Amino acid sequence: MLGAAAKTAIPVKAQAILSLGVLSCALILDFYGLKQKSWCVLSLRRQTPKRVLRDFGARRAALAWGLDAGLVFTTFRMSSLSWALLALAILGVAPSWVGLGYAAGFLLPFLLASVLSGTWPAAEAPALAERLARSSSVARVTCVAALLCSVVMGLLLV
At what angle do helices 81-91 and 2-9 cross, to 10 degrees? Predict the structure, then answer.
């Protein structure tokens, strides 16, 4: 709704300049996070408490975790990309279906891990967690590179 209103109210040139500003800010924030080896500074430093599983059961805990992970502002974020995406949607620049890609970014790795988890012996779980933790810098560099490409392309188009 906001995006549709903004798309008609804000001139195209102004939308492009605002989008470039949003992406540039996200790039600066992600570069800072990469340099400081920290999470996105815009995100809350919290996650779904483990007691939710104990107090409410697996089904409600999964719902709480999914809502927590799916909302941009409620939990840890590796990158400011999700914030930039939200801002671009509000500006009316991102298409309405972009939320499906955002959801797939959470859902597909989760499904893959669920399917593959039965193939790993329980003794290998700590080693897998360690490998994933080491690969987080690769994901952060990828986010910075994607934002850099977006900013450069935006500069060329504006």
Answer: 60
